[in-house]
Each structure stands twice: as structure tokens, then as C-alpha cells.
Amino acid sequence: PEKYAVIGHPIEHSKSPTIHQAFAHQFNKAIIYEKILAPLDGFTATVQRLQAEGFVGANVTVPFKFEAFALCQGLTERAQAAGAVNTLCFLPTGLLGDNTDGCGLVNDLLKHQQAPLAGKKILLLGAGGAAQGVMLPLLEQQPLLLTIANRSLDKAQGMVAKFAAEAARCQTRLEVQVMSAVAQSYDVIINATSAGLTDRPLDIPAAVFQSTGLAYDMMYGRETPFMQQARAAGMLVADGLGMLIEQAAEAFYLWHGLRPDTAPVIQSFRLP
Ligand code: ATR
């Protein structure tokens, strides 16, 4: 069978093998999908080994997405925009890098959260790697307004500058805010900060959470302070499980040319 892998550090917790095996099962395909712990200074060597061993593709997770980006000979447009790679294809011509994270987020919002984005007002919290990874796919949905709110304004300004032309093409008003100064209400609020790893609430005015829309945390596996803040204010709340499974589905499509049915896989992860 064809060989695939997910490379990270740590990697033990990764759900990717289970997800990809569930997708393969839908098409009666037998695949090998391994979890690979790369040493922090050994990402390149790990990729070279997989290439030599005939692997077809690999997913890349924390902290190697930027190194993967630098290593690729070819990059998709969305990987270039993200500045990071989460999906590798070992081609005869070299290493092709893609980034399916943003597409995964958008597909979860549209397909499973009933949260349309076209013509809507979106608030994206954070301006790090996770936020940049979803910028292009969000803009491609042609929202009316995309506000990037970050703790430090300069970092958000730096990120937004890279997407000014794309925003103009999509007729989206792209603006930057300090998180503590966000004033209006939004249809969708997306948390792309890494603050969910802590227990401190985000420094966002409570009024922002009075929106009638959806509060979405890209993190999966824990009820973050952001989710608690939004829930307490009565918003609809979602975690990043659907994004995780949709980004995997897009990688699966890249490798196999087949579109898996994601809903039952999401369901199976929600079961207690
Ligand atoms: P990632 O790859 O997860 O995006 P990153 O590139 O280090 O990680 O970016 C982390 C993001 O989370 C940044 O936007 C950071 O804000 P700053 O740019 O102001 O540092 C944001 N972040 C982290 N902890 C936060 C907190 N406690 N409150 C608000 N924002 C936080």
C-alpha cells in the first residue's frame, strides 16, 4: 500500500492517522499512515528519509510548518500566501508543498457551521502563523469586512500588508485593530491566537461577544477562555475539530484525487 505520514514534535497526540484511515476506508483503499516524531533539529533529514523510502505524501505539524515551506521546490498559491506548509507531496520532480489549513477552516464554516462568509463581517484574532495561514482562503470568500485584531498592532499591520492586493481584488475591506479596541459586532469571530493554551481570557471588549453570530476557535481539544467568553455572552461556539478534519480531507484530495465524506468522521470524534 501507499505510504503516508504526519511529522511533528510532539506527535503522539496526532489524530491524523485515524482521520486518514477513516477516509481511505470510505474508498476501500488500504494505506499506511505513520506518526513520525522528528528531532527538533532533524526535520530535513526526516523528510529525506521518507522520500528515499518511497512515501507518497506527508502532513507537517507544529513546529515544522515553516521549515517545510523553506524546503519545498514547488509551492501552491495558498502555501505561498500562508508562508507555511502542512501538506507535502513527494513528486519525481521534487517536493511540492501545500497548505490546507485555511481551506479546512472555510469548509468547516460553510459546510458544518452554517456560517456563510460572502458579504459578511469577519473578525480574525491573532497575527501569527496560524492567522496568516487562513488569510487567503478567508479573503477568497469575499467577505464585506475582515478585521485583524491582535495584541500588538505592528505585527498585525505587517501581516495585513501582504494581503492588501488580494483584499482589493475580493472587494473586502481589510482593517487592523488592537484587540482591546475592537468596537463593532461581527458575523463570525475566529480565534487564531495561541492564547487558548493558557487560562487567561483575551483582552477583548465584552461588547464584541454580544454579536449574534458564531465564535470559532481554531484550537481543538480544550474549552478555551475565548470559547468560555463567547458562550457566556450567548454566542454560538465551535472548536477546531471540523477544521482539523476538513484540512485532512483537502490533503487527502491532493494525494488521492478523492473527496471523502467528512461529516461522519467529525461525528465519530464527537462521540463521548
Ligand atoms: P501561531 O503559529 O500559533 O500563530 P505565533 O506565530 O507565535 O503562533 O502567534 C501567536 C499569536 O497569538 C500572536 O498573534 C500573539 O499575539 P502577539 O502578536 O501580540 O504576540 C497571540 N497571542 C498569544 N498569546 C496571547 C494572549 N495571551 N493574548 C492575546 N494574544 C495572544
Automatic annotation (TrEMBL):
<dbReference type="InterPro" id="IPR011342">
    <property type="entry name" value="Shikimate_DH"/>
</dbReference>
<dbReference type="InterPro" id="IPR041121">
    <property type="entry name" value="SDH_C"/>
</dbReference>
<feature type="binding site">
    <location>
        <position position="61"/>
    </location>
    <ligand>
        <name>shikimate</name>
    </ligand>
</feature>
<dbReference type="Pfam" id="PF01488">
    <property type="entry name" value="Shikimate_DH"/>
</dbReference>
<dbReference type="InterPro" id="IPR013708">
    <property type="entry name" value="Shikimate_DH-bd_N"/>
</dbReference>
<dbReference type="Pfam" id="PF18317">
    <property type="entry name" value="SDH_C"/>
</dbReference>
<feature type="domain" description="Shikimate dehydrogenase substrate binding N-terminal">
    <location>
        <begin position="6"/>
        <end position="88"/>
    </location>
</feature>
<feature type="binding site">
    <location>
        <begin position="126"/>
        <end position="130"/>
    </location>
    <ligand>
        <name>NADP(+)</name>
    </ligand>
</feature>
<comment type="pathway">
    <text>Metabolic intermediate biosynthesis; chorismate biosynthesis; chorismate from D-erythrose 4-phosphate and phosphoenolpyruvate: step 4/7.</text>
</comment>
<feature type="domain" description="SDH C-terminal">
    <location>
        <begin position="240"/>
        <end position="267"/>
    </location>
</feature>
<dbReference type="GO" id="GO:0009423">
    <property type="term" value="P:chorismate biosynthetic process"/>
</dbReference>
<feature type="binding site">
    <location>
        <position position="220"/>
    </location>
    <ligand>
        <name>shikimate</name>
    </ligand>
</feature>
<feature type="binding site">
    <location>
        <position position="77"/>
    </location>
    <ligand>
        <name>NADP(+)</name>
    </ligand>
</feature>
<feature type="binding site">
    <location>
        <position position="101"/>
    </location>
    <ligand>
        <name>shikimate</name>
    </ligand>
</feature>
<feature type="binding site">
    <location>
        <position position="247"/>
    </location>
    <ligand>
        <name>shikimate</name>
    </ligand>
</feature>
<dbReference type="InterPro" id="IPR022893">
    <property type="entry name" value="Shikimate_DH_fam"/>
</dbReference>
<feature type="binding site">
    <location>
        <position position="240"/>
    </location>
    <ligand>
        <name>NADP(+)</name>
    </ligand>
</feature>
<dbReference type="InterPro" id="IPR036291">
    <property type="entry name" value="NAD(P)-bd_dom_sf"/>
</dbReference>
<dbReference type="GO" id="GO:0005829">
    <property type="term" value="C:cytosol"/>
</dbReference>
<keyword id="KW-0521">NADP</keyword>
<feature type="binding site">
    <location>
        <position position="86"/>
    </location>
    <ligand>
        <name>shikimate</name>
    </ligand>
</feature>
<protein>
    <recommendedName>
        <fullName>Shikimate dehydrogenase (NADP(+))</fullName>
        <ecNumber>1.1.1.25</ecNumber>
    </recommendedName>
</protein>
<comment type="similarity">
    <text>Belongs to the shikimate dehydrogenase family.</text>
</comment>
<dbReference type="Pfam" id="PF08501">
    <property type="entry name" value="Shikimate_dh_N"/>
</dbReference>
<feature type="binding site">
    <location>
        <begin position="14"/>
        <end position="16"/>
    </location>
    <ligand>
        <name>shikimate</name>
    </ligand>
</feature>
<comment type="function">
    <text>Involved in the biosynthesis of the chorismate, which leads to the biosynthesis of aromatic amino acids. Catalyzes the reversible NADPH linked reduction of 3-dehydroshikimate (DHSA) to yield shikimate (SA).</text>
</comment>
<dbReference type="InterPro" id="IPR046346">
    <property type="entry name" value="Aminoacid_DH-like_N_sf"/>
</dbReference>
<keyword id="KW-0028">Amino-acid biosynthesis</keyword>
<comment type="subunit">
    <text>Homodimer.</text>
</comment>
<dbReference type="GO" id="GO:0004764">
    <property type="term" value="F:shikimate 3-dehydrogenase (NADP+) activity"/>
</dbReference>
<dbReference type="GO" id="GO:0009073">
    <property type="term" value="P:aromatic amino acid family biosynthetic process"/>
</dbReference>
<feature type="active site" description="Proton acceptor">
    <location>
        <position position="65"/>
    </location>
</feature>
<feature type="domain" description="Quinate/shikimate 5-dehydrogenase/glutamyl-tRNA reductase">
    <location>
        <begin position="111"/>
        <end position="195"/>
    </location>
</feature>
<dbReference type="GO" id="GO:0019632">
    <property type="term" value="P:shikimate metabolic process"/>
</dbReference>
<dbReference type="InterPro" id="IPR006151">
    <property type="entry name" value="Shikm_DH/Glu-tRNA_Rdtase"/>
</dbReference>
<dbReference type="GO" id="GO:0008652">
    <property type="term" value="P:amino acid biosynthetic process"/>
</dbReference>
<feature type="binding site">
    <location>
        <position position="218"/>
    </location>
    <ligand>
        <name>NADP(+)</name>
    </ligand>
</feature>
<keyword id="KW-0560">Oxidoreductase</keyword>
<dbReference type="GO" id="GO:0050661">
    <property type="term" value="F:NADP binding"/>
</dbReference>
<keyword id="KW-0057">Aromatic amino acid biosynthesis</keyword>
